[in-house]
């Protein structure tokens, strides 16, 4: 369980370290596409062969969704930070120009 929490925290922090929002969005789309692709492929396998399903599979899928959510939360936090920083810089530039 500690590994799962550690991975979730790392996936939340990883987007905060990305320098540009362009890379951030591309990285986020790629990661979440892979996670959700895995999720839907797994659901397709269970639908085609019911013997594959079980509590372990459900727990694995829950972890994949948790990873996607923590990564998405990190991306959202970084985007909010970039928007606020841009607004502050723009406001500071206007104050310098008007002074």
Fold topology:
Blueprint: H1 2-13, H2 21-48, H3 55-98
Helix pairs in contact: 1-3, 2-3
Transmembrane segments: 21-41, 61-84
Keywords: Membrane, Transmembrane, Transmembrane helix
What does this entry look like structurally?
- It is a single chain.
- The protein is an all-alpha fold.
- It has one domain.
- It is 85% helix and 0% strand.
- It contains 3 helices and no strands.
- Helix 1 runs parallel beside helix 3 and helix 2 packs antiparallel against helix 3.
- It starts with a helix and ends with a helix.
- The mean pLDDT is 76.
Task: Offer a quick outline of the entry.
With 99 residues, the chain is an all-alpha fold. Helix content is 85%, strand content 0%.
What spatial form do the alpha-carbon principal axes imply?
elongated
How would you characterize the largest beta sheet?
A: none
- Order of SSEs: HHH
| Span of the ends, CA to CA | 56 Å
Helical percentage: over 70%
What is the β-strand count?
0
Which residue ranges are poorly predicted, with pLDDT under 50 across at least 5 consecutive positions? none
Fraction in beta strands = under 5%
User: pLDDT average, as an integer?
Assistant: 76
What class would the helix/strand composition place it in?
mainly alpha
Please tally the helical runs, counting DSSP H or I stretches of 4 or more residues.
3
Number of separate domains: 1
What is the rounded Rg? 19 Å
Keywords: Membrane, Transmembrane, Transmembrane helix
Transmembrane segments: 21-41, 61-84
């Amino acid at each position: 369980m500690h590994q799962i929490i550690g991975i979730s925290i790392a996936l939340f922090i990883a987007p905060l370290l990305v320098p540009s929002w362009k890379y951030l969005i591309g990285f986020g789309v790629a990661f979440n596409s892979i996670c959700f692709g895995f999720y839907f492929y797994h659901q397709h396998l269970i639908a085609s062969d019911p013997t594959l399903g079980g509590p372990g599979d459900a727990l694995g899928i829950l972890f994949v969704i948790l990873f996607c959510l923590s990564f998405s939360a990190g991306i959202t936090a970084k985007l909010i930070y970039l928007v606020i920083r841009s607004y502050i810089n723009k406001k500071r530039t206007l104050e310098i120009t008007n002074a």
